[in-house]
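ok so i was messing around last nite and threw this chain in just to see what happens. nothing serious, just curious
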Amino acid sequence: MPHRSRLLIQVLGALAALGCADSYGDTGGALEPIVVSNATFNAGSLPNDGLEKLPLTTSTSSGALAGGPEKSLSGRASLSAYAVAVGVKGAGSGYWVVPVGLPDLIDPGLDWSLKFRFTRQMPLGSQTVLVAQTDKRGRFSAPSEIPFTVKSLLPEGKKVISLVWHNHADLDLQVQGPDGKITSSKRPNTGVVPDDKKLPSGGIEGSGTLNRDSNARCAFDGIMEEDVVFDGDPAPGDYLVWVDLYDHCGEAATTFELQLHEDGVQTFGAVGQLLDINADNGTGAGLFMNTFSF
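result:
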C-alpha cells in the first residue's frame, strides 16, 4: 500500500470509531435515527400537552431503508397550528419541528408536508414515527402514530465490500479481481463475461456484482453507498480496492468509509478522505484503500 494512502487511513481512523454523521438537514440532529429536511432539531422527548391530534396525516409508503433515500409525510393541521413536530417512538434523543403551510381553501385547515430519511442509526424492524402539531404558545398535541417497516441498506451476501459516505459527492467503488479486471459502474461484475456475452444461469461463479452507482453525475439519490456483493464464496485470490472521486458536486471534501461484511458481520473498516481537487471524471485510478485476500 502506498505510504500516502496508508497515512491518510491511519490519520482518519479515529473518525471511524466516532461514527460518520449524515450531513442532511440540521446538523444538530445528524446522529438521530430520523432526519427531517429544512427543520429544526430539539433535544428531549416529544411533548404532549393534550391538544387535538392532527386532522390528517398520510405517508407515501410504509417501507423504508435505514440510510436510504428520503420519504414524504403530508396532511392537514388545525387552523391554530404553528408547526408540525416529528420523532421516533422509543428511539433518538429529540424531535424535529417544521412550519405548517398555507390554509386549504376547500377543507378548513392548514396543509403541511415534509421530507425525511431514516439514518443508519435507525433501529430495524417495525418502528413508529410520531407526528404532532403545535400552536403559537408552544403547546403540543397528542401524537399521531405512523408505522414503518425499516430494513437494512446493506445487501445480503456471503461477502460484501461497501463504500459509504455522507454528502452529495459522486464517489465510485473500484474493485480489481484476481484476474486483473477492475469492476466499476461501467463493468459491474468482478467475473469475466463469456465471449458470447451471455451470463450462465445463476451468474458467473465466484463473482461479485456492483449494486448501484450512487449520486451518479451529481444526481443526489440520498443513498450514498455502493456495494460489491458476492452471493457465494469469491473466486480465490487478491481483490484490490480503490475509491475514486468522479465529481465533487460542490463539496469541498468528502469523508468515506470502506467496509467488508462477511455473512452480515462487519469485519473491516477504514476511513479516508478526498478533496474537491481530486475529482477526475473517472479518468484516474482513485485512492487505493486495501487488498482483501479471499
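not much to say yet. Confidence is low (pLDDT under 50) at residues 1-27.
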